Amino acid sequence: MTTVPPVSDVTVSLGEDYPDIREAVRRLCRPFDGQYWQRLEENGKYPDEFVKALTESGFLAVLIPEEYGGAGLPLRAASVILEEIHASGGNAAACHAQMYTMGTVLRHGSAAQKAEYLPRIASGELRLQAFGVTEPTTGSDTTQLKTRAVRDGDSYVINGQKVWTSRALYSDLMLLLARTTPADQVARRTDGLSVFLVDMREARGRGLDIRPLKAMVNHNTTEIYFDNLRIPASSLIGEEGKGFRFILDSMNAERALVASECLGDARWFIDTATRYVSERVVFGRPIGANQGVQFPIARAYAEMKAAEMVLRKACAMFDAGLPCGEEANMAKLLTSEASWHAAEACLQAHGGFGFATEYNVERKWRETRIYQVAPISTNLILAFLGEHVLGMPRSY
Ligand SMILES: Cc1cc2nc3c(=O)[nH]c(=O)nc-3n(C[C@H](O)[C@H](O)[C@H](O)COP(=O)(O)OP(=O)(O)OC[C@H]3O[C@@H](n4cnc5c(N)ncnc54)[C@H](O)[C@@H]3O)c2cc1C
């Protein structure tokens, strides 16, 4: 039996967590400056060089235990890495998924699956960047997803469609959520869903079709069509029909890691705005001397610091093996709003120059806005808090 510590034993670091890692990430990000990200967007490219540097440094594998070739560090460390990438003006969305999708394999995969995949993911030989959950006709109503996986001898046969599957064209493996028992035959709507680790290298052209969905820079999203795709039964992760529960803990990690990116964005906006308003002189004095310019930045700073504490607690609880749905969801909610308010303050403070590509403000402003929609929208977090935390009546 595992014993979990009481909540009062969870320590939240008040100082700067992992200063050495922060410094190393800042150093790694230095060559990938604003112009690098601008060029990618102009040419519709994937940040190959940045992802390669991050992989070779081992930062993408920090959550993989040492016995499988990773660094075996806690979520707190992964959080710091993503925060620093975003605070440096970069964006980790092109590769962050590997950090949390791997968790489903680690916690629920068989010994054989872990031995086969984790060391190769840790070394960068295999990329697990795609997470196929969202579908065009069911959206946020995940348990109603329609992609079916039907057992046939030693295989599963998959039919259906996913949308917004980011990075599928830059990944070897995909973590796929599909229905194995029809929705009208299960006791609870979260039952009957299963998780599969699909080897896309073998599947493409044999029932798996990936089509790019032109959208935001660094997300490299796609639509995925499954047409009688046959995958080995050994691709199933954990017990059939229990998949929804298996991805929930990955989702808590995802919420906390995305919140870390929001925190980094907020820091970038506040630093950039503070510098600009202290230097830009209009009407004979720095615009930052005007409280109408200064106060939104100061307010965004206060919001960011408060959100950071909730995020640190979410990570500490996750690392202690405690249920952290409430904290992870609140961290995502609060940091995404703090980063958006910081983005608005920064853009407004730059006046017309905020829209000039070379300042990077409008790019970061667009990038940070997504976090109020994906990977989970603000309304759905509020519905979770209202129903599951506060016990109010179910809304959907
Ligand atoms: C760039 C990008 C990358 C993405 N990457 C991935 C990925 O890699 N893998 C993946 O599986 N998905 C991915 N997604 C999908 C993302 O998770 C969904 O877009 C998100 O969960 C919202 O779902 P939806 O777009 O279907 O919106 P809908 O579910 O259609 O909702 C639309 C709006 O209605 C609101 N709404 C819906 N129902 C309710 C309700 N009951 N009460 C109150 N408000 C409600 C929502 O809050 C939202 O604002 C990505 C999306 C984007 C834009």
Name the helix and strand elements from N-terminus to C-terminus, one letter apiece: HHHHHHEEEEEHEEEHEEHHHH
Tell me the domain tally.
Answer: 3
Task: Tell me which CATH architecture of the largest domain applies here.
Answer: Up-down Bundle
Strand order of the largest sheet: 1-4-5-8
The overall average pLDDT, rounded, is 95
What is the name of the CATH superfamily of the largest domain? Butyryl-CoA Dehydrogenase, subunit A, domain 3
> In percent, how helical is the residue content?
40-55%
Distance between the termini: 36 Å
Work out the helix count. 12
- What small molecules does this complex bind? flavin-adenine dinucleotide
Work out the number of β strands.
10
Major β-sheet, in short? Answer: 4 strands, mixed
Write the CATH fold name of the largest domain: Butyryl-CoA Dehydrogenase, subunit A, domain 3
User: Could you say which structural class the secondary elements and strand pairing correspond to?
Assistant: alpha+beta
Roughly how many Å is the radius of gyration?
Answer: 21 Å
Strand content: 5-15%
Secondary-structure map with pairings?
Blueprint: H1 19-29, H2 34-43, H3 48-57, H4 75-87, H5 97-108, H6 111-123, E1 128-132, E2 148-152, E3 155-163, E4 173-179, E5 193-199, H7 200-203, E6 208-212, E7 222-232, E8 236-237, H8 243-279, E9 281-282, E10 285-286, H9 291-319, H10 325-349, H11 361-369, H12 378-389
Parallel strand pairs: 1-4
Antiparallel strand pairs: 2-3, 3-7, 4-5, 5-8, 6-7, 9-10
Helix pairs in contact: 1-4, 4-8, 5-6, 5-8, 8-9, 8-10, 9-10, 10-11, 10-12
The structure holds flavin-adenine dinucleotide (FAD).
